[in-house]
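[job 0417] fold request received: Tetratricopeptide repeat protein
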Amino acid sequence: MTEPFAVLLSRCRREAGLTQDELAHRSGLSVDGVSALERGTRRYPRRETVEQLATALGVPAEPLLAAIPRRTSAIGSPEHVSASPAVAGPDRPRQLPMAVNDFTGRADEVERLTRLLRSCDGPTVAAITGMGGLGKTTLAVEVAQSVADDFPDGHLWLDLRGHSSVEPLSPLDALGQLLRGLAIPPDRIPADAEMAAAKFRTLLHDRRVLLVLDNAANVAQVLPLIPAGPGCAVVITSRHTMTGLAGAHRLPLGLLAPDEAEGLLRSIVGAARLEAEPVAVAELIEASGLLPLAVRLAGARLADRPGWPVSYLVQRLKASRLDVLDGADAGIRTAFAVSIDQLVSSASGIDRAAAEAFAKLGAFDGPDLSGMVAGALLGVEPFEAERLLERLSDLHLLEPTSAGRYRFHDLLRAYAREAGVQPDVEGLTALFNAVAWRACELNRPSSPRLDWAAGRWSKDAPDLGDLVATLDWLEAEHPNMVAAASYGTPSVAPLAVGLAQFGMSRGHWLGHFRICQVGLRVAIETGNGMAEGFVRNDLGLVRIDLVPAGLSTFERALEEFAEALRIFERLGSEAGVVQTMCNFAFGLEAAGHPLDAVRYGERAVEHAHRAGDRLGETWARIILGRIYSGVGRHQDALTEYTQALSLDDGDATTVAALLGRGQVHRRRGEYAAAERDLSRSAQIADRLGHRGTQARARDELGRVAQLRGDHETALRVLTAALEQARRYDDRSFEASTRYGLGRSLLALGRRTEARAELMAARSIYEGIGEAELAAEVDREIRAR
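[job 0417] inference complete; emitting structure tokens
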């Protein structure tokens, strides 16, 4: 009696001393494929496959081929499936469409799907999902054609019309078409969907058939169409995520890579025409959003108009992308409209609400959406908004970017905006306002800003947890805050004032600058003098931080402080006067006017003490300590920092005073005292989530470790400082920390890494106009 193929193959492999992994490697098959053959779940391998295995095992192929079971075909005659290619016949359909001749890119996806279908440990189901216009069908056809010979018993193709202008096929209608494709007469097709599915599974159980189900509406539509035979494979394309399709290998299809998009464009237009305008080609690809359908339509437009320069089409795309990329039957609008129309006409309330949300959310300029932001824009609770976001994501009308966050593709956003809906930005700004003021309350309860706010905005703030969690939320939503502020609603003025604590803690200076600019304009327009004073004060500080990037000047910063001081004096706000005088002194020192800075700092201390402003006096002494240290008056600086700590106005001031005093101890060579103060400052900064102080305290600790000769410790703390400095968005400080890292790496003999850090520091210094510091780092590089 002939030994079964699975048993014979397994015995030959063991006798050859090979594992399944080793046999797969030698034969060029997948491990899953070898395993399926040895388990007997893949019963009918191709002759070519058997010959590859025999060569890898070093045995003749004939015994293995003889062991492959013979089976009965649909018409009752014995058939040996791998002996020769099957011939097309009534029961062996060949329905695959022709592959496009300019298929480009998707190499990884093609390789993955091809390998999966050829291993066919059955049945194999692959679902290609993604938004309209990604080329799901084109990919499915390309792969199906490449593996067609692996399925000698037929290839079935069916458009399920899940996302088209006509009704989707019902499972019964779909089964009817598939059975007719297998030469079953109409009068022998059951009228019941379950019976038709059973008949379909029976027909395919011992056959090796490739089934492509294009344009599926959902999981329920395709489940009855999946055969159970071990030799069958199914490829599904859908705009739905198909997450409920158990056992399926899902392939979410993304946008093209830029080089793939250029390759597709070249295949349509020709290389010579593109090479003549490389800049315009790059702009064209960007305008297409890397969406294959858009690239193909743009290429077709150029091919049809040989007299058009690429740059001319780019100009038209910038004016109106959807109009240029639209066509009578296959334009961008048509591709997108199908999904929206299905939501609008759905019997499901969540679907209809999702269609309405699509237009409202697309109208907002923010880069992405969370449930809370979407809820504020839609006027619904965050949980309900998340349901709508998920529904839109299921249909690939939104793209999930991370847990709980979603974004629009540029072309989908443009399509959404054609509805002409206006976003509820005032509601969103009110949300940001509430959270910003809650962070202010948590960070600095004695702030004079809170006296002015009187709880007007924070009362409706959602409970996000402690200070760090609240700051983290504001940081995650900061780009959306900038976008919301640009609309200039009345809430932007108090938002700009309330965000000061966030800005000082987390940086993001350019975005904060834009919010303050709009907030200042709104405050002036509405005659809100206190808001104008606070925002001008904050703008002065932000401008100082933007000087290294060349985006502002010290002179403009000092002008903001001077105007804020006049406003607070006119309004009789002692706290505002003290705060602005402190920042004026800080700005004078940063601008290189140390003597004027000392005078302003001393005036600020006197003014705050006379007014009984405990918080103002604390900050004034911290600023004055910094200025004294800068001019070499270290003992006076220590006195001011120590007095500031004795006032003990809370963690926000303590962390700054400890940092300043630790810096002075380090400059005086008092390393133990420096480490004590700096370590405490870092610990408090960690608790507050104050990224700037976290970075500076650890940078100082690294310097102390270097001075002690402990470069291992210096390397550890400076690495942590660098990570925090980069997140704080302070390029000058990042350069300083990289410089320190480079010096410790040199001391440890790690020259290659050291050179990389030093060169990065030099590059940053050059970029922000710090020529002297760049030259100092350059001398360090050359000396080593």
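[job 0417] notes: The longest helix spans residues 425-443. The longest strand covers residues 210-216.
[job 0417] exit 0
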